[in-house]
Amino acid sequence: MTESLEKELLGEPVIDAGSAAAAGPSLGPPVSPEPGAALPGRRPVLSAAWDLLHDVSITVLFCFFIVTFVAQPVRVQGASMQPRIEDNERILINKAIYRFQGIERGDVVVFYYPRDPSVSYIKRVIGLPGDRVEIKNGTVYVNEAAIEEPYLLPEYRDRYDMPETLVESGHYFVMGDHRTSSMDSRSFGSVPEKYIYGKATFCVWPIAKTGRVR
Is 181 a residue of the active site? Predict the structure, then answer.
């Protein structure tokens, strides 16, 4: 950065308090340090180690906060969300978004599998609380109206039939985009909202697919 740009962004550079420019006129001969006194600028090794430990601890706590409450990178296993999300893709989960807005139809969410909360699943939200979901020959109807699903490819559709089901309050009906290879709300029922802990927002790997998850 040039001196002119530095002045433009930060103002005049701060002059160190120990510099000659800030010391003013000399008031007498220089004073020699006492024998055995530590030279200015030298810091004990223990103090430097403590500062390093402090900085590392702050960094670790910050990363823990980010991963726990804000965002988390994960690897997707399985083909149930093809073609939008492939097996072994790395995606970023937004874990804070649903603290500020509600879950919407079409969101790709990550949740604890209701039958085994130690396992996480990723699916797309189809039915909201209070919706009536029905499937006829693979076509999904919500409140008696067929929904548009532009994320589905013809070869990933199925001929599944499901009688009309009411989505309970505080629950969400979810399905995979690859209907012929997805275990979802058609088999294990609606997902409690408390089990949904994030929204898939961004693909980070492979590079060719980097971008928003839709």
Answer: no
- The answer to whether the bond into 83 is cis (omega within 30° of 0) is yes
Among 26, 32, 57, 80, the one annotated catalytic: 80
| Burial track 17-50 (b if 16+ CB lie within 10 A, e otherwise) | eeeeeeeeeeeeeeeeeeeeeeeeeeeeeeeeee
What residue ranges do the domains of the chain occupy?
70-212
Give domain 70-212's CATH architecture.
Answer: Ribbon (2.10)
Q: Who contacts 129 (Cβ-Cβ below 8 Å, separation ≥6)?
A: 167, 168, 169, 170, 171, 172, 193
The reply to whether 80 belongs to the active site is: yes
**Exposed, middle or buried by CB within 10 Å (0-12, 13-18, 19+), for 101?**
exposed
Question: Which tens digit of pLDDT belongs to each residue from 152-178?
Answer: 998 899 999 999 999 999 999 999 999
130 sits in the region (left: phi over 0; alpha: psi -120 to 50; else beta) called left
pTM: 0.67
Catalytic residue among 123, 185, 190, 199: 123
